[in-house]
Amino acid sequence: MVAREKKTVLVSGASTGIGRATVQRLAARGHRVFAGVRREEDAESIRKDAAQLNGGGELEPIQLDVTSQSDIDAVAERLKADGVLLDGLVNNAGIVVASPLEALPLEELRRQFEVNLFSHAAVTQALLPSLRAARGRIINMSSIAGRISNPFMGAYCSSKFALEAYSDALRMELAPWGVRVSLIEPGPIKTPIWEKSNRAAAALQGQISSEKLALYREGIERMKEVAEFSVRTAPEASKVARCVSHALESPLARRRYPVGHLIWLQLYAGLLAPAALRDWLTGLVLRWPAGSKR
Questions:
Q1: Which of 27, 33, 29 is CA-nearest to residue 2?
Q2: H helices of 206-274, where?
Q3: What is the pLDDT of residue 229?
Q4: At a CB cut-off of 8 Å and minimum separation 6, what does 254 contact?
Q5: In the predicted model, is pLDDT for residue 206 greater than 80?
Q6: Residue 61, CA distances (Å) to 11, 23, 77, 90, 181 in order
Q7: Residue 66, CA atoms < 13 Å, CB-side half-sphere
Q8: DSSP character at residue 117
Q9: Are the C-beta atoms of residues 63 and 38 closer than 8 Å to each other?
Q10: How far is CA 79 from CA 73, 93, 131, 136, 222, in A?
């Protein structure tokens, strides 16, 4: 299906998962898509996808490490030099830092926010003149974890909560120029980010003292089991990509797009239930008591 109007879009974190599914869908719908990647092998893989396109779309890899200001500035300068106005910016790049907060090194907490919040702010600031001129749209990849927090995922949830607040303020500030801001809020989705986060979590645990790790080991192991089950039964990344294309193309783009199995039930139960009940249910699932253990 080809989009009615060709748009120019930049997507960060496009090498795998949701980002890759998004650039494939948008290009297939006839848009011109810049796929932000960090490594040359990912750029080459994007070029292979581009060679198989039909329907008038364009797909081009572009060097973009969102934590590198020089990369961000180079992208902004290139678009300006080429006379390109952006109709859409999809801030998708992200990482998961999983650890009990007591044991989490502060540099890891800062890294979580650097990638999931500050990098998006930097990219947005650099490209806003182009987006403003085009009356474009900004689509920020949040998570259901941006509205409902979970134990042992506090760093990740906190970064997504912050991204939600940032996006709400940005949406209202940019309204006078017709620049719309939408949030995509996936639940568990089948993507490589979970495998990457498991490896990162294992490496991080090696930095934590055995005494602190012993305090939380049961909860950590149970959280892994719950996460693995959730991912096994989760929808594909293409479902999220459909929400991104709607946020980009529709005259009735929504402010938020929760996406995933039973996501509305999770959302309303999580937000409307009393905090004590939410804590008890979470503890029940994780076999982690909500009250005193001792």
A1: 29
A2: 210-232, 237-249, 263-272
A3: 81
A4: 182, 246, 247
A5: no
A6: 10, 10, 16, 14, 24
A7: 32
A8: I
A9: yes
A10: 10, 20, 11, 15, 47
What local confidence, expressed as pLDDT, does residue 46 receive?
A: 96
In this prediction the pTM is 0.91
**CA-to-CA distance for 198 and 3, rounded, in angstroms?**
37
**133-144: burial string, b at 16+ Cβ within 10 Å, e else:** ebebbbbbbbbb
Catalytic residues: 156
Name the residue type at position 90.
Answer: V
SS3 61: strand
Could you tell me the two tokens for 20? 């890759």
Q: What is the mean pLDDT of the chain?
A: 91
Backbone angles phi, psi at 139, to 5 degrees: -125, 110
Beta strands in the chain (DSSP E): 8-11, 32-37, 58-63, 88-91, 137-141, 180-186, 256-259
Q: Name the one residue in this structure whose structure tokens are 């503890």.
A: 283
The better pLDDT of the pair 56, 163 is held by 163
